[in-house]
Write a structure and sequence with these properties.
Layout: E1 5-10, H1 11-32, E2 38-42, H2 44-48, H3 52-58, E3 64-67, H4 70-78, E4 85-87, H5 96-103, E5 106-109, H6 112-119, E6 127-132, H7 144-159, E7 163-169, H8 179-192, E8 200-201, H9 205-208, H10 211-215, E9 224-225, E10 251-263, E11 268-269, E12 275-276, E13 281-286, E14 303-306, E15 309-314, E16 322-325, E17 337-341, H11 348-355, H12 359-365, E18 371-375
Parallel strand pairs: 1-18, 2-3, 2-9, 3-4, 4-5, 5-6, 6-7, 7-8
Antiparallel strand pairs: 1-10, 10-13, 10-17, 11-12, 13-16, 14-15, 14-17, 15-16
Helix pairs in contact: 1-3, 4-5, 6-7, 7-8, 11-12
Length: 376
């Protein structure tokens, strides 16, 4: 019998979350008399741990897919995806360009070295591209003062038949928590790209769910938003829960109790004895640990559900086990179901807050040894 832990991926929840985003965009477009943006569904990092094949199936209603890994992009094509695919970091060496050409991938252009590699390449058909601006995040992209020259290089490559459609893009650093910083980045983008033709892509999950951002960015232009984490049922905002945004958890990490015991006052639990009881307690050992991807730094009090009842973890998370407080569920026995996060349990964001991290990390970190189950 396999160890009792699994990560269940709900395709219907993935579809629901995409439809939620599309409806919000349609409403924002109607309110502003603008055409709603088109949607790149971001599926980087194995679709945030949910599986590339699952994402291709669930996000069939998206206008395109966006990711980083060339192999994942090829896998999408081989799975039957025939709409646009955007490589968010572009290509890394000249040999990659043959893959872009063979599989008709759209590239990001964010540095001069990429233009240098592109100069010697002759594709069978022009490649679509987005030229990226560093508007203040200081990761990838051309500086504002160098952006127009970079864009002119792209237009020159377009005239030579190397590039097809050329667009403009940037990435927001604080769309989830600081409107002033985001507005400054948007103003920087507007100034650097003024009068330059082509489609626009600026919005991540938080910005996509903030209509005033995309509706005020180059009105009338063809826009592409890039929602990521919200598609998987996690909130990009610290002060709004997934439920408040109408999102459903797409991954449920579940396990079972493999041991139940009573401890007395003053008895301690686990490595380091980080928790000691002040009174008699009933505790349960759960078949989940940090080797499964559960955060080791999640301390006592992290929410968990046992037999449908919300309770908390106790002490330090071990490699293969953690301990649950069974005080709220005194009748729980060995074999009782446990939800670490997802449907019927705490949200992944709640667990992340307790562990001092973000839901993105937890979803991406579920270990290969955890059985993955896909349901419609």
């Amino acid at each position: 019998m396999p160890r009792p832990i699994s990560a269940t991926i709900s395709l219907s929840s993935l579809r629901h979350n995409l439809e939620n985003v599309a409806q919000r965009l349609a409403f924002g477009g109607a309110a502003s008399a603008q055409q709603p943006p088109r949607i790149w569904a971001v599926i980087k990092a194995n679709a945030y741990g949910h599986g590339i094949d699952n994402a291709v199936r669930a996000f069939a209603g998206a206008d395109g897919l966006a990711m980083l890994d060339l192999n994942e992009a090829v896998r999408c094509r081989e799975a039957g995806w025939d709409k646009p695919i955007l490589l968010l970091e572009g290509f890394f060496e000249p040999a990659d360009l043959d893959v872009l050409d063979d599989y008709r991938l759209t590239t990001t252009l964010h540095c001069q070295e990429q233009f240098d590699m592109l100069a010697a390449f002759r594709p069978r058909a022009p490649l679509d591209a987005f030229v990226k601006l560093n508007s203040g995040m200081n990761r990838l992209g051309f500086a504002p003062g160098a952006y127009r020259d970079a864009y002119e290089q792209a237009r020159s490559a377009q005239q030579q038949g190397v590039l097809g459609r050329v667009g403009k893009m940037t990435h927001f650093a604080r769309a989830d928590d600081d409107a002033a910083v985001t507005r400054k980045q948007l103003d920087t983008f507007a100034e650097a790209t003024r009068d330059l033709p082509g489609p626009v892509s600026v919005c991540n999950s938080a910005a996509t769910l903030t209509p005033e951002l995309w509706t005020s960015c180059e009105p009338g232009a063809e826009q592409w938003v890039r929602p990521g984490i919200c598609l998987y049922g996690s909130s990009p905002f610290a002060r709004q829960t997934p439920a408040q945004l109408g999102l459903r958890p797409a991954m449920t990490l579940a396990a079972r109790l493999i041991s139940v015991r009573n401890i007395g006052p003053g008895e301690a639990i686990g490595y380091g004895h980080r928790f000691a009881s002040s009174q008699p307690m009933r505790i349960g050992v759960v078949s989940c640990g940090y080797a499964d991807g559960y955060p080791r730094h999640a301390g006592t009090g992290t929410p968990i559900t046992v037999a449908g009842v919300r309770t908390r973890t106790l002490g330090r998370v071990s490699m293969d086990m953690l301990v649950a407080d069974l005080s709220p569920v005194p009748d729980a026995q060995v074999g009782a179901p446990v939800v670490l996060w997802g449907e019927g349990g705490p949200s992944v964001d709640e667990v992340a807050v307790a562990a001092g991290t973000i839901g993105y990390e937890l979803l991406c970190a579920v270990a290969p040894r955890v059985q993955k189950i896909t349901i419609e």
